[in-house]
Fold this sequence. Notes:
FAD/NAD(P)-binding domain, D-Amino Acid Oxidase, Chain A, domain 2, 10 helices, six-stranded mixed β-sheet, alpha+beta, nine-stranded mixed β-sheet, globular
Amino acid sequence: MNVSILILGGGCFGLTSALELRARGWSVTLIDQGRLPHPDAASTDISKVVRMDYAADEQHTAMGEHSLIRWREWNAKWGEELYHEDGFLVMSRDELHPGGFEHDSHAFLQSRGHTLRRTSSAMLPNLHPAWNQDVYRDGYLNPTGGWVESGRVIARLAAEARMAGVEIIEEAAAPRPLFDGDRCTGIVCSDGTRWNADHVLVTAGAWTPTLLPHLQNVMWPTAQTVFHFKPDHPEAFTAPKFPVWGADIGRTGWYGFPANADGLVKVANHGPGRRVNANDQRTLPVGEEERYRAFLRETFPSLADAAVAATRVCLYCDTFDGSFWIDHDPDHSGLIVAAGDSGHAFKFTPVMGRIIADVVERKPNPWAERYCWREKIAANSDGARASN
């Protein structure tokens, strides 16, 4: 095969599809506006959740199960533990009830043969003492899950791609798709540099609707805040006492991680966020630190006064229905789009390359059908994303 493809964007979508397509014999060039891992990309940061808990969503549960197997395989191949299987603890303020994320995840995973530990408020002082037992009544621990050092994974994948023969061009000057009429023929930079190929795959995350304005009615950048706290005694916030967690996450969006090797505890909110332009300066909303500390005072009182080591504004590329967007553009031949992370892509990194490559090659893939080009059917993705 001597077919060429340009990939615009070096996050988890871009690098995994580059590796997969290169393994299939494609000539692959990946272009990014920054250095990898790009500090502003959603794929970066110190950690991302890895879980298979998706309420009664059969496909994403299955994708999570398969990804977990591959994460362990990557640990073995790389000879270092970048995926940490510390478990995933979800607690609810109320008793678990049908229709709630926690209840439906617990029931569905049990039906698939997974062993979970139901966790009540009475169990928290002994098992998870940082939690406020007066507020959180019911939940469960899934021991199969945890977190991954996301920025380091991107660096690993970029190194593997180079070794496999993928040409990676970093710090390109404002690269964008190049069109000849309705056909996408390559990528061009603001300094006039251009590349041509048989196909162009846009994996640019939150920058996708800026690069492809005809998609702005079905996807948009959304800003979500992240705080890294540095407690005086980080050992109190390490697994198994303090695994990856969700605090009434189906309703509130609050989630976080155990302390990493640097003693940092990452806390974030998977909420509606703020619609932004991906190129705008990233700033925290007024009062955001106090919002976080109010949550911590109620949920993890011993963490509430910890120093802030860093903050981050992470940009999702939200689709209207919260599902990924992976397909050939029906109106622009030669153009394929893989976007719409909607805040839940990184955990699936080990399986995304094959899905995207199958779409590029127009091969059937049952998981890809859900992410095809589609008509907008909802006003926004806030509700849809809560369970995605």
